[in-house]
Amino acid sequence: MNITHKHVEDIFEYDGSQINPSWAFQEFGIYGSSIVTWIGPVNITPDNLKDFADVGLEIKSNNMVNFICEFFDQQPTNMRIAYLRQRLLVMIFREILTEKGVKTTREGDDIFVDGRKLSISIASVSLSSAKIHFALNLEDKGTPGDVDTIGLYDIDDGNVFNENNLKDLIFDVVNRFIDEIETIEKDISKTKVLL
Q1: Claim: this prediction has a pTM higher than 0.90
Q2: Which end of the chain, N or C, is less surrounded by CB atoms within 10 Å?
């Protein structure tokens, strides 16, 4: 499967509408499976909430790294595979944090550093594609008052992640994720089925 990655330099808000099918095609003309990344605030409007458990909750942050993934390789689409890919993306990011000496814990698709919430994520499917939104706080600012949060720039007072290496982090996460999906496809193609 060919996956196109586009990093958008413009800052814009994630309001939840970007999880809609074919958003990357409609906004950027990207055909097929894709990952679009950008930096910007998050403020998910109630009409765009996709997780029943989040109804009535605020999901917002002043500044986050956003990843929107869309896959067209499963027809009909498969919610289980969408969630497995979401968890794979989360685990890859945790692997990178571990390599940088940052200790984390995970609850489902949520990553915590020192007990403080670093990430948000959702996976879902439409009739034509599977979608994932994964986002990481840059700073502990503008987040809901009832959630203890942390940002990438807050970890070790900015000595691990900062504006100088943020784009490298984004591309590292995306490249590892694409490589995992592609090597799974290769493994499938060379594996003899059980009779």
Answers
A1: yes
A2: C
Residue 72 domain-assigned (yes or no): yes
Instruction: Kindly report the number of other CB atoms within 10 A of residue 121's CB atom.
Output: 21
108 in a domain, yes or no? yes
Question: What pLDDT band is residue 44 in, cutting at 50, 70 and 90?
Answer: confident
- What secondary structure does DSSP assign to 67-117, as a single string? EEEEE--SSS--HHHHHHHHHHHHHHHHHHHHHTT---EEETTEEEETTEE
Do 37 and 64 form a contact (C-beta atoms < 8 A)?
no
Number of domains in the chain: 1
Q: Is 25 left (phi over 0), alpha (psi -120 to 50) or beta?
A: alpha
What is the domain-level CATH number for residue 163?
A: 3.30.930.10
Strands 34-43 and 60-71, how do they pair? antiparallel
Mapping DSSP to helix (H, G, I), strand (E, B) and coil, where does residue 30 land? coil
Chain segment 70-84, per-residue pLDDT in tens: 999 999 999 999 999
Residue with tokens 């794979």: 88
Amino acid, res. 108? G
